[in-house]
């Protein structure tokens, strides 16, 4: 494996690359219940409400991040993020997040959902979720008091501040707006619940 820190390059993905990664690669990294129908991603891409970044080792994809956004908005939702298996435990994940923050430094914030440790089925899953949360916190993400449930998946909500550190209320409003835009008002009412602890 080449030294990705010297040779890796971050690139904005084309719509075609985003769709290809989503339909062919993401299913290896995410449970089926967390994957949206491809038609939803196609619609968001057409509306300029979805985009992606890839970290490449030469021509080979090493990691990717796919984002939802309200068109012309300042907030991104990190919808899917993964490092390909052969590049894990190499510092790739941290490098990618650092580059991602630089790439989007003019935006307001990046929101991200992580599966809530409190909703884990067993100790192994709890440990995995805590480790994932710890990774994000070590790399500049801040755990908010916001919790969401989307199609029966419980999430803790983190924010990666960019232009400024938003309040939990600001992050809540941005995330609510993103969910409404992505899912539509009826699906939002039926399948999304959100709370912000005092």
Verbal overview:
The model has no long low-confidence stretch (mean pLDDT 90). The protein contains 7 helices and 8 strands; from the N terminus they run H-E-H-H-E-E-E-H-E-H-E-E-H-H-E. By secondary structure, the protein is α+β, with helices and mostly antiparallel strands. An 8-stranded mixed β-sheet has the order 1-2-3-4-5-7-6-8, sandwiched between helices.
Largest sheet, in brief, is:
8 strands, mixed
> What is the C-alpha radius of gyration, as a whole number of Å?
16 Å
Task: Estimate the mean pLDDT confidence.
Answer: 90
Oligomer: single chain
- The count of DSSP E runs of length 2 or more, i.e. the number of strands, is 8
Unreliable sequence segments: none
Overall body shape = globular
Strand content: 25-35%
DSSP helix count? 7
N-to-C CA distance: 47 Å
Instruction: Assign a percent range to the helix content.
Output: 25-40%
SSE series: HEHHEEEHEHEEHHE
Q: How are the strands of the biggest sheet laid out side by side?
A: 1-2-3-4-5-7-6-8
What structural category characterises the helix and strand content? alpha+beta
Annotation keywords:
7 helices, alpha+beta, 198 residues, eight-stranded mixed sheet
Task: Describe what is shown at a glance.
The chain is α+β, with helices and mostly antiparallel strands. The protein is 38% helix and 31% strand. It is built from seven helices and eight strands.
Helix/strand layout:
Elements: H1 4-7, E1 8-12, H2 15-25, H3 38-46, E2 50-57, E3 60-69, E4 75-83, H4 92-103, E5 109-115, H5 123-138, E6 142-150, E7 153-161, H6 168-183, H7 185-191, E8 192-196
Helix pairs in contact: 2-3, 6-7
